[in-house]
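USER: If only I could read backbone structure tokens as easily as an amino acid sequence. It would mean a lot if you studied the pair and described how this chain folds. Here is the record:
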Amino acid sequence: MKLKNWLLSAIALAAFAAVSSAPASAEECPRGDLDARYCDRDGDLVADTPTDPSQQVDPDTLVFAYTPVEDPAVYKEAWSDFLTHLEKVTGKKAQFFPVQSNAAQVEAMRSGRLHIAGFNTGSNPLAVNCAGFSPFTIMASADGTFGYKMAIITHPGSGVEKVEDIKGKKMAFTSPTSNSGFKAPSAILKADFNMLAEKDFEPVFSGKHDNSILGVANHDYPAAAIADKVMYRMIQRDVIKEDQVKIIYESQTFPTTGFGTAHNLKPELRAKIEEAFFTFDWEGSSLQKEFEKSEEAQFINMNYKDFWDVIRKIDAANDVSYSCN
């Protein structure tokens, strides 16, 4: 099967699992790539807050989910101090919602069960267009730098010393919606190395970055495409040893997880949630403990239109559609 058809089939499966059909009487308005249930009158590529106050939500308990790149139990503890701060700023209860897949996270926001989320780089466009996700911040280092690199890794003794050596072997990806775990490496392998899945190597999906990394470290896969910061955090926690894996390719820097809210929260509540992110004190917190290895130390302002431009270009190169049907 050619890469284009294989890719479209994988994306379609993820999208089908994550969405439901739009209302039959969708409002006529500018929307670009957004699903028919949303409007984009200001041209920022993100769903507008409903103008009808009756369609705005103000839940008693705010449900938060972090992208499912690793063990959800680890991140429930990591986000505990932030959620306590969120409760103080908003005056509402906050609950951590452990999601097992990108599709489940998108589905939860689209259905109204998820109010605040961190969607991974590759899932952001699908979440924005199909679930009404409205991102406004990402993690950054103390000097304001941000992002991560896609890395192709192998293990010593695999017989893979360079990317071309993957030909004829298995290569692990994470999920069809992941930028570093699937979309970026697929585009790079095709454009820079003339290598296509199914034709030049056998693609397999592990589900998560940590599964791919553990699979390489334990010799289940000879190679995998992953987000480098996930690997560094796993080394820091002694989940794997540094000498169990090695990098044979690194990409340009991509934006990391984008954080935001459902589009239909009351504006006053959305403002309080933004305040909670930007006033959170990292020093000595559970977030600092978890992310200090990758040097994140603050939340900074961002916007989807500009920060995710390179990701949308990668999607376009892979013929990815954001259709929710």
Remarks:
- The longest strand covers residues 246-254.
- Confidence is low (pLDDT under 50) at residues 1-25.
- The chain has two domains: 3-18+29-145+255-317, 148-254.
- The CA atoms of residues 155 and 219 lie 7 Å apart.
